[in-house]
Amino acid sequence: MLRMNAKKYADVGKALNDNTKRLSRTVVIGGPSNLNAMVALTYAKNLPHESITSMTRLYQEQAMSYLGIRTGHKPHQVKKLAVWGNTSTSMFIDTRRTSINHFPIDSLVEKSWINDEMGPRVKQRFLEIIKLRKLSAAASTANASLLHMRDWLNGSVDW
């Protein structure tokens, strides 16, 4: 699979390099998205490095929802939560700077719940949706990509 993806994203990178404006922006969603984005960027030699990103926003939104439910808050009240890595068990949900209504997340939620319950659930949620619905999570992914682009273009007041 990795070889097939590498060839596909090498072709994507070459096409971006040859056919897009230097100010264009590209979000890689297909997993493993970090690796695929790196391959595309390698072959898009004339594009600035910041013009291609990998999207983990879907997982960020899911983690914000779980934290909101756990604390009785709305997901948009969760600030400064980041997700690093590919769609896998090695994904890292970074709550070191996370807060809800200016309260540090550690004062609202047990670290063990984040690591032992929320973390594994977020990491498996995509597969869970496919299993339950027998369909992809395309609507959730589309929404996350819109939020990703909005914040990439306009910046985020959360940080």
Task: Describe this protein's structure.
This protein has 159 residues and is mainly alpha-helical. It has 2 domains: 2-54, no CATH class; 57-154, Alpha-Beta Complex (L-2-Hydroxyisocaproate Dehydrogenase, Chain A, domain 2), CATH 3.90.110. It is 53% helix and 11% strand. It is built from 5 helices and 7 strands, in the order αβαβαβββββαα. The strands form 3 sheets. The protein has a 3-stranded antiparallel β-sheet. A hairpin with a 7-residue loop joins β4 and β5. α1 packs across α2 (33-43) and α3 crosses α4. It is globular. It starts with a helix and ends in a 5-residue tail after the last helix. The model has no long low-confidence stretch (mean pLDDT 91).
